[in-house]
Design brief:
- It is a single chain.
- The chain has 452 residues and is mainly alpha-helical.
- Helices cover 65% and strands 6% of the residues.
- The strands form 2 sheets. It has a 3-stranded mixed sheet with strand order 1-2-3. Strands 4-5-6 form a 3-stranded mixed sheet.
- Helix 6 crosses helix 8, helix 18 packs antiparallel against helix 19 and helix 20 runs antiparallel to helix 21.
Length: 452
Amino acid sequence: MYDEEGVIRGDFVSRVEEAIAGGDRGALRDEVGSLHESEVGDLIEALPPEQRRQLVGLMGEDFDFAALTEVDGAIRSDIVDNMPNAQIAQAVQEMDSDDAVYILEDLDQEDRDEILAQLPFTERIRLRRALDYPEETAGRRMQTEFVAVPPFWTVGQTIDYMREDNNLPDSFSQIFVIDPSFRLLGAVDLDRILRSKRTTKVEEVMHETRHAIPAIMDQEEAAREFEQYDLLSAAVVDENDRLVGVLTIDDVVDVIQEEAEEDLMRMGGVGDEELSDTILRTSRSRVPWLAVNLLTAYLAASVIGLFDETIQKVVALAVLMPIVAGMGGNAATQTMTVTVRALATRDIDIYNAGRIIRRELVVGSINGLVFALLVGCTAWVWFGSYDIGGLIGAAMIINMLAAALGGILIPLVLHRIGADPAISSGIFVTTVTDVTGFFSFLGLATWWYGGH
């Protein structure tokens, strides 16, 4: 299905397209039926929109709806919106609850209620409970199917229960221990169960759940718990410490990837844009930050306007100005990227912020001196003027220091006041380096040539 570079093969997609065009269900099942849900997701994204919907229809009961959790939101919505609610309800019953919530949360409230009404009572209550939690919380990400037993059961009873009950999740690594009110008491790892005698009480082999996840915890915070304590799964509890679900490592991996992509997209000022979005939606999502950037560009241009007489006298200044601003902007972006990522992973705090700021200042000073020498010598050779070389060298040092300070302080300040530094740091940092670079270079030139 994939070539050496991990890209879905064109001949495979062509065979699937031919099967869809000819309505050949048998050939389609032969090609797609044995694929993993993530592979089906890749295939769906490679097909034209109309054929995506036809694929789902032709596959019928053989289509794994979990594949829809592997595609862009716009593609998923396009497919689901063109399906009857009865078919969605049937598919949801066969999915893990976390995947089912992933599908249902994008639907209109009216459609969602109609689908839930068609589900068995227990399944409906489980899904409603997860959907009631805010988006991007552990409660939305959790799987409501789990294994829970009372502390007075024996290991033998627990094993028999797992063998005989058909409503348990397909895979799990922990058994949770609860009291009659479903309050979480502890957990037992499966390996401990298998190594204990059948007559041993569960309460004798259980351990306290030291890392239970509150259902209202942000999903990124929950992922950080998994990362810090090397968890494979964790209990999810409500405000009364009652067990309501379980968060597993496969869901956390998805969270980590989504959050990293979100931070990267926000730093580029494109928000939650997806490749499958329409041209109009894509354009609309990018316009606001481009407009803000235009305003900051006017600010930088106004600084240049203050020194128009100096520029007219020394044309070389106009040629060299972009170098000062560009180098400062790139240096600031490097510092800003490291800072934003460190804030996201909580590697920067009140205890080490001062040390890191001092380090960036030293780095900025060293880089400023190095590039001041390089650019100054280049300008001297280029224009045959010691003055120009010295001026741009001095401006380079000043702007590199400004870049170091702006690159770390602006994200820290934005984070401190509750703004997302990933979204807005870039524009402000670029403005600082542009304004500082132009003002220092042209200001020094005005002072120097005005006094000589």
